[in-house]
């Protein structure tokens, strides 16, 4: 649970950084981010922590890294991109596409037509509106403590007088 909270903070802060810094929105940054994230995922697996919920909190950032890497030209690309980014809000997806910096000599700028096509598709599937832009990194997950019922029959328990617990009553 501590790791999930910590990685949520790492993931949310990085995603916010990506959303606010144009220089991070590039294909090469996407590759680096994906590689770094896969190292974290591998470490979690090696520690047997894949069920801890820690992998899930990294997932929006994984999708953002993939968004930076996929082709962004045709209508099919727009459809594929939308089915990839299920954990990002429409506002986040559009912001990253607008900020995307093409690799010099290798890529074209993402066309306004492509961006509005993505925007339309996301509006259709995401009914809650554009959603928020930045991740609320102050979010705290509730801590869950496992409850194990006592094997003792408490009503048969005899409390020694020497413990001075006379105020304890039987319910
Ligand atoms: C990836 O991790 C390296 C350190 O291992 C760091 O220098 C680099 O900035 C990270 N890049 C991204 C995009 O997270």
TrEMBL record:
<feature type="domain" description="Dilute">
    <location>
        <begin position="1"/>
        <end position="124"/>
    </location>
</feature>
<dbReference type="InterPro" id="IPR002710">
    <property type="entry name" value="Dilute_dom"/>
</dbReference>
<protein>
    <submittedName>
        <fullName>MYO5B protein</fullName>
    </submittedName>
</protein>
<dbReference type="InterPro" id="IPR052072">
    <property type="entry name" value="Vascular_dev_regulator"/>
</dbReference>
<keyword id="KW-0732">Signal</keyword>
<dbReference type="GO" id="GO:0051020">
    <property type="term" value="F:GTPase binding"/>
</dbReference>
<dbReference type="Pfam" id="PF01843">
    <property type="entry name" value="DIL"/>
</dbReference>
<feature type="signal peptide">
    <location>
        <begin position="1"/>
        <end position="17"/>
    </location>
</feature>
